[in-house]
Amino acid sequence: MSEDFVPDLRRAARIGLPEAVFCLDKSPEQIAAILAAAPERLLLTRLESAKFDALPPEARERVTFDPGSRTAFLGAPVPAAGPVRVAVVTAGTSDLPMAMEAVRTLAFHGQDALRVADVGVAGLWRLLGRMEELRTLPVLIVAAGMDAALPSVLAGLVPGVVIALPTSTGYGVAAGGVTALHAALASCAPGVTVVNIDNGYGAACAALRVLRAIGSQPAN
Q: What's the chain's average pLDDT?
């Protein structure tokens, strides 16, 4: 076993969610070593294309890589079963990488998601056209940068759990997502849940915990 990492093999039994590997600050050599020591299934996040390309061929062949979400699956995801229970909603196209990280995390755990893209408050007619289906779902992950108004708007219109995913999208005083984070935290819509900036993985895990609590998601 490498001195650089210690796999948490009991995490799924402990909390219902298996360990994931955050690859952003890991070297290709460290990622390859983790894959070699991993159990049959593993989710990798923030795996950039250049770092994936730098992995040894045997490591690349073992994973399914998606450059858009910067995620990779070792082993097959849990087969999806039952109706779609989560929507992943984006204010703009620039929020898609963070939203897709959430979508892929959900898929790894056997949960399909309804994707609703580019429905930000600059053109509310786009959102209003999707409200009938959004109101039927128990959990909505809402990715938005700039002023992050979309999570508050949706939380005032739907009965489900709204998980705000502030993103680093925006000019100037958007401050790399800090403004979006503060706006989501200061929302006047009651009960909005907020994860960290660009944390699509964390938003998906929050959704999975909610679904498990209400009996809509099996344990992994």
A: 90
